[in-house]
């Protein structure tokens, strides 16, 4: 009987995982990781992914990338699946610019194949991509270009020989029996592999897009689809998750060891589920192929489940490998390696009376025939197999009789198979009895061992239970103290503070870190649940007229939002005449602080910020329960956390819309230079005003200059939007980049980003794309068409 373990005991299970050292940021030459029980890892800025050594077996370590915030630590990429590393092996960014894995004796086990020289650092990204780059952020190597068995959102397979290779088994990461190939001819194909060679053997599924297919795309929204070179979608493999925000789930698509290509989702840990044991990975449907048991029928080879076995699809849509009566596993540890008879085979001088036929309906082994008879009765088919020493199985179906010999191949059990299998077994077999006796002996030995272990486990369990009780008791005391200190806004995790608490937290509002039209922001420190948290306290000015309305809007708009590209509201104060908002503190300030400084952020960092800002706006526009128009997107309202991830702030000017409401017609809001033309035309205000502002912001990120520079030496360069379009139209985009060598070396991307920005700043709001489409264009999921002239009207408006 299964034993249900209380959820609080899982703390004791994951405790050893929490003591492993983890580091974040860029890893420079000389950085290394060593395999061992206390292996450290390189963690992405959000902590979602980690790179390092995972112990797979005693003394065997896999150099891998995995999901880091969930219990399973699911591997998404590995370097040395075919040869596990011993304890003491080391992966190192060497001083001479190599990324190499050596065993404890210094012998090379694996090395990254760099596309160029000048390696300066490695970075583990929030996308799950490990990159090796130069000082100018030019990528020399990335794990996304060398996939193993898994694809992650934003990852692609190009028709240049990119493949996914299934592993050998669930726990063996060496090359397995299946491959997903994006072929140079444009066809996406699932193949069996002819082990121990690595050559393809049999195609059991194909997209049939020869001459037109170009790229398999896994976009941020969870869709997996095949596109042509012009961006046309040819085949949608997986539709993606539509009922849940993609920001609330992890996703992966994997060619599994059973030959099936599946997409999985997993709920991200959140503040509401910290004390709840997380769910498991959930498979999405459809899967490819839908039924591999009946799809895979190769001319040579054993099929899905190995020789002499058969395949059956379970309720979970996974193939189950089974042995027919009279057969047992060749390798009990790997049921996909087939079955062998438990009896001595029939010799040609033996009487048929020593054998019998066991009947199983809807079971067959195609491609194992050596004889076929038509229009015969079933009794005749039975007797003919019993008297034939070569016959191991007879298949009878509507007057047809097929005789099959060992090894049996491509076995499948399914209602679509029809007919019946007549399996020959020995009726009186000393060998079988001997085998059964050995099995019973092993079972008795195992039973004694299990009882011994169970007794010891019971004692350990009671000790763990006592420890867990003490831990939970202390946590509840802390929680009760915290709850009594700070009230929580119903339905949210937002706390209510009184004015004295925030005055104390900010040292009487001593350290000012920002100021706007309606508020001043101070840095402070709050103590709760035995933890000190640095916060930004936004103190609203005298609450009269519109200002008080702004406060009410900001509270209701932000309290129920939750996205990694938005600044999180921790709490608020509504104490008498005092109105304050408490946010998490962003240590790298605002985008404007670094974008227009003498030392500009790297090209890679700017693109990271551009995508993050787009994701935040997409969430506000389309994924909130209440749609939000920000109305004041600009560099000052894009804050940067410790990993320079974009976090949109200041919803004080936001317009909240019901889910079925698309526009509002209030007075002009926003900041000069970023205001959409419709504000000046008494036109309806929609989410497209944010798209316009984002387009201006994107141009600023590309060029590292302000949208309006009245002191520019050349009058044609005063308005960035006009100048950028002129440079694009004349093919002189390098003029926008000044001395930015990294951006110049990525000029194709620069051109695409400028085109996206021009689409965003179209005078006609209906021509502007949605933020969802902007995000898809940024991620390369859809092509960017040639934009029209955004109109000279922009220049006259912005100079007012």
TrEMBL record:
ATP binds at residue 539. Its EC number is 2.7.11.1. It comes from Nepenthes gracilis. Keywords: ATP-binding, Disulfide bond, EGF-like domain, Glycoprotein, Kinase, Lectin, Membrane, Nucleotide-binding, Receptor, Serine/threonine-protein kinase, Signal, Transferase, Transmembrane, Transmembrane helix. This is Receptor-like serine/threonine-protein kinase. It is found in: Membrane. Residues 24-145 form the Bulb-type lectin domain. PROSITE patterns: BULB_LECTIN (PS50927), PROTEIN_KINASE_ATP (PS00107), PROTEIN_KINASE_DOM (PS50011), PROTEIN_KINASE_ST (PS00108). It is a single-pass type I membrane protein. Residues 1-21 form the signal peptide. GO terms for cellular component: membrane. It is an enzyme of class 2 (transferase).
């Amino acid at each position: 009987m299964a034993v249900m373990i209380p959820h609080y005991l899982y703390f004791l299970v994951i405790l050893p995982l929490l003591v492993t050292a983890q580091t974040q940021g860029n890893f420079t030459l000389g950085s290394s990781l060593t395999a061992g029980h206390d292996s450290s890892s390189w963690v992405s800025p959000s902590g979602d992914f980690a790179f390092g050594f995972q112990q797979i077996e005693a003394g065997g370590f896999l150099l891998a990338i995995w999901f880091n915030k969930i219990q399973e630590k699911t591997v998404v990429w590995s370097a040395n699946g075919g040869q596990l590393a011993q304890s003491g092996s080391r992966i190192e960014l060497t001083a001479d610019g190599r990324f190499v894995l050596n065993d404890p004796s210094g012998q090379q086990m694996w090395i990254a194949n760099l596309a160029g020289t000048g390696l300066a650092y490695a970075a583990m990204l929030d996308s799950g991509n490990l990159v090796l780059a130069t000082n100018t952020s030019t990528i020399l190597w990335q794990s996304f270009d060398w996939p193993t068995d898994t694809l992650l959102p934003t990852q692609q397979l190009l028709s240049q020989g990119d493949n996914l290779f299934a592993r050998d088994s669930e726990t063996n990461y060496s090359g397995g029996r299946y491959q997903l190939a994006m072929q140079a001819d444009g066809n996406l194909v699932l193949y069996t592999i002819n082990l121990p060679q690595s050559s393809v053997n049999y195609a059991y599924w194909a997209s049939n897009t020869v001459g037109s297919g170009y790229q398999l795309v896994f976009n941020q929204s969870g869709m997996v689809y095949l596109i042509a070179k012009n961006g046309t979608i040819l085949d949608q493999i997986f539709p993606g998750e539509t009922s849940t925000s993609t920001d609330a789930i992890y996703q992966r698509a994997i060619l599994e060891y059973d030959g099936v290509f599946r997409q999985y989702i997993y709920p991200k840990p959140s503040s509401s589920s910290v004390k709840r044991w997380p769910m498991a990975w959930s498979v999405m449907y459809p899967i490819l192929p839908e039924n591999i048991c009946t799809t895979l029928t190769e001319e040579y080879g054993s099929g899905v489940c190995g020789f002499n076995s058969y395949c059956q699809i379970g309720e979970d849509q996974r193939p189950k490998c089974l042995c027919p009566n009279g057969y047992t596993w060749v390798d009990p540890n790997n049921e996909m390696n087939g079955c062998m008879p438990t009896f001595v085979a029939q010799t040609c001088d033996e009487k048929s009376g020593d054998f019998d036929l066991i009947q199983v309906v809807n079971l067959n082994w195609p491609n194992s025939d050596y004889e076929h008879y038509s229009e015969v009765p079933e009794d005749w088919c039975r007797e003919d197999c019993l008297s034939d020493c070569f016959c191991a199985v007879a298949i009878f179906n509507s007057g047809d009789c097929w005789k099959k010999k060992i090894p049996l191949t491509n076995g499948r059990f399914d209602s679509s198979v029809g007919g019946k299998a007549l399996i020959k077994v020995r009726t009186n077999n000393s060998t079988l009895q001997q085998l059964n006796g050995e099995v019973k002996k092993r079972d008795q030995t195992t039973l004694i061992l299990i009882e011994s272990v169970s007794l010891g486990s019971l004692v350990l369990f009671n000790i763990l239970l006592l420890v867990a009780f003490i831990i939970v008791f202390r946590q509840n005391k802390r929680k009760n103290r915290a709850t009594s200190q700070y009230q929580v806004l119903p339905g949210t995790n937002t706390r209510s503070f009184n004015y004295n608490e925030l005055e104390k937290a900010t040292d009487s509002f001593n350290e000012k870190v920002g100021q706007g039209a309606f508020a001043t922001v101070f840095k402070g420190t709050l103590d709760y649940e035995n933890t000190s948290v640095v916060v930004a306290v936004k103190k609203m000015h005298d609450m009269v007229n519109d200002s008080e309305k702004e406060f009410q809007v900001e509270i209701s708009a932000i309290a129920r939002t939750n996205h990694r590209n938005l600044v999180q509201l921790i709490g608020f104060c509504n104490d008498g005449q005092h109105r304050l908002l408490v946010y998490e503190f962003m240590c790298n300030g605002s985008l404007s602080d670094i974008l227009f400084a003498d030392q500009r952020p790297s090209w890679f960092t700017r693109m990271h910020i551009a995508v993050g800002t787009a994701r935040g706006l997409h969430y506000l526009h389309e994924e909130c329960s209440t749609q939000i128009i920000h109305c004041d997107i600009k560099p000052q309202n894009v804050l940067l956390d410790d990993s320079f991830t974009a976090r949109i702030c200041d919803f004080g000017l936001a317009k909240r819309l019901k889910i079925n409401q698309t526009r509002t017609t209030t007075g002009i809001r926003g900041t000069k230079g970023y205001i959409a033309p419709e504000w000046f035309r008494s036109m309806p205000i929609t989410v497209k005003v944010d798209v316009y502002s984002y387009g201006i912001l994107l141009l600023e990120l590309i060029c590292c200059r302000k949208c309006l520079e009245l002191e520019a030496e050349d009058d044609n360069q005063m308005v960035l939007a006009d100048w950028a379009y002129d440079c694009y139209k004349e093919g002189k985009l390098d003029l926008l980049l000044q001395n930015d060598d990294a951006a110049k070396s990525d000029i194709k991307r620069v051109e695409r980003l400028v085109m996206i920005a021009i689409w965003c700043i179209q005078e006609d709001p209906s021509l502007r794309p949605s933020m969802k489409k902007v995000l898809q264009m940024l991620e390369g999921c859809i092509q960017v068409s040639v934009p029209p002239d955004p109109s000279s009207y922009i220049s006259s408006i912005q100079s007012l």
